[in-house]
Amino acid sequence: MPDLHFPQGFLLGAATAAHQVEGDNRGNDFWRSEMLGLFPERSGEACRHYALFREDFALARSFGHNAHRFSLEWSRIEPSPGRFDDAALHHYREVVEELRRLAIEPIVTLQHFTLPVWFADAGGWLAPRAAELFGRYVQHVASWLGPRVRFWITVNEPTVWAKHALVLGHWPPHRRHDWRAAARAILALARAHRRAYAILHRIQPDAWVGIAHSAPFVEPARPRDPRDRWVAWMRDLALNRLPLALFRRHLDFLGVNYYTRALVCWGWGGTAPLFGRDWPYPHGSTPRRFSDLGWEIHPEGLYRQLHRLARLGLPLMVTENGIATRDELLRVRFLEEHLAAVARALAEGVPVIGYLWWSLLDNFEWHCGFAPRFGLFETDYVTFARHPRPAAFRFAEIAGQRSVTAASEAH
Ligand code: FCB
Q1: pLDDT tens digits, residue range 223-274?
Q2: Element (H or E) spanning 260, and its range?
Q3: Residue 12 is part of which domain span?
Q4: Cβ atoms < 10 Å from Cβ of 295
Q5: Positive/negative CA dihedral, 87, 154, 161, 81
Q6: Which of 19, 257, 357, 376 to mutate to test the pocket of ligand 1 (most atoms within 8 A of CB)?
Q7: Where are the beta strands (DSSP E) in 273-402?
Q8: How many domains does the chain have?
């Protein structure tokens, strides 16, 4: 099979999020819930990345990364309403400068799930002033970091946040089955995004501004069964088409977070009847493979999703893709197969500009705690040492050659 190539300038790296790696993020709503015992584990020192970012970026560089996605912790930058903390802003400026010094393109997420407690207490995304308050923060950050950053991601996975915070109740404000609130929150996040988009472009006309959209590939389990087709259509509408329609006109690129396919069938899945349930059986002639979190491994879904999303007519960046596993061979295969899927779409004209692995390090996986292992580097939570996994070496090889063999893509 021929090699598939990534063009010169293609972004290859990894992603993290502040609360999952930095440690001691005491000012946000997740920390508060952790202290109240509403999470099975506390983030605590996480990976101590706030102190160790230089070492972590040096590792990324020596393993061939030329891009890195990370998030700013709003609660550090604006610990109380309208009061901005220079030390935190200075820190993030150093983070960006360090990446630039290493020739690693910074991709900056302004908001990755966690909210300052004062903002959460004022109603969070459901408060009438949410977009305005977010805009004030964005304005301040953009003036501080300014032209050092080219790629901005305003908000991470609005649909995932709404699901966990307002429907399943795992995340603050821990509401359950509040579908109306979930819909309102997604609308509010879109408003906040639009405001941030305008602010960023005012301050920095050549900025590339996007969101990171969770883009599961939805398919009916029995394509000939109209009921399965109907729930798949509904689920894709709710998770992909409607949210994207809200953001579409204010995007310079779309961040695509892809982990899995949703193979769905008619039936009661525990949340909403319209969305059916996940197909619990093997499928067709191919055995299905799953991660430690029970997410189906399906590289073909990434390939097909990129083709679907190409219809939006925007540059696409894979802003998250990865696997929670303790099986290192499986992690390497996952990496190869998904990169081959990206390269194949690219070769067919889909405008993909980058691929970021989730995650650089093992980290705090929200309500699943520290057990899931997503890192290219293993984090030792006692010594805080990082150890490269086989996938880190494979990543370096692929990045060095800027090619991946098509043969390694199995369906
Ligand atoms: C995504 C989140 C990210 C991480 C991965 C596994 O939904 O954006 O923070 O938790 O899943």
Answers
A1: 999 999 999 999 999 999 999 999 999 999 999 999 999 999 999 877 777 8
A2: none
A3: 3-409
A4: 16
A5: positive
A6: 257
A7: 277-278, 289-290, 296-297, 316-320, 352-358, 377-379, 386-388
A8: 1
Q: For ligand 1, pick from 111, 320, 325, 363 the residue to mutate: most ligand atoms within 8 Å of CB.
A: 320
Pairwise CA distance, residues 156 & 389, whole Å: 27
Spell out the residues 6+ positions from residue 59 whose beta carbon is closer than 8 angstroms to its own: 360, 377, 386, 388
Provide the pLDDT for residue 411: 43
Whether the Cβ atoms of residue 99 and residue 68 lie closer than 8 Å to each other: yes
Chain-centre distance for alpha carbon 363: 14
Confidence of residue 406 (pLDDT cuts 50, 70, 90): low
Helix axes 328-347, 390-401, angle to 10 degrees: 20
334-378: pLDDT as tens digits: 999 999 999 999 999 999 999 999 999 999 999 999 999 999 999
Q: What is the pLDDT of residue 2?
A: 64
pLDDT score at 405 = 82
Q: Using CA atoms, how far apart are residues 114 and 27, in angstroms rounded to an integer?
A: 9
Q: How many residues does the chain have?
A: 411
Element (H, E) at 10: none
Q: Is the CB of 17 under 6 A from ligand 1?
A: yes
- CATH number of the domain that 49 lies in? 3.20.20.80
CA distance 262 to 256: 15
Instruction: Report residue 70 as tokens.
Output: 């990370």
| 215 touches ligand 1 (CB under 6 Å) | no
Instruction: Report the alpha-carbon distance of residue 237 to residue 183 in Å, rounded.
Output: 13
- Rounded to 5°, the CA angle 227-267-183 comes to 90
Q: Read off the pLDDT of residues 38-71 as tens digits, 9 standing for 90 and up.
A: 999 999 999 999 999 999 999 999 999 999 999 9
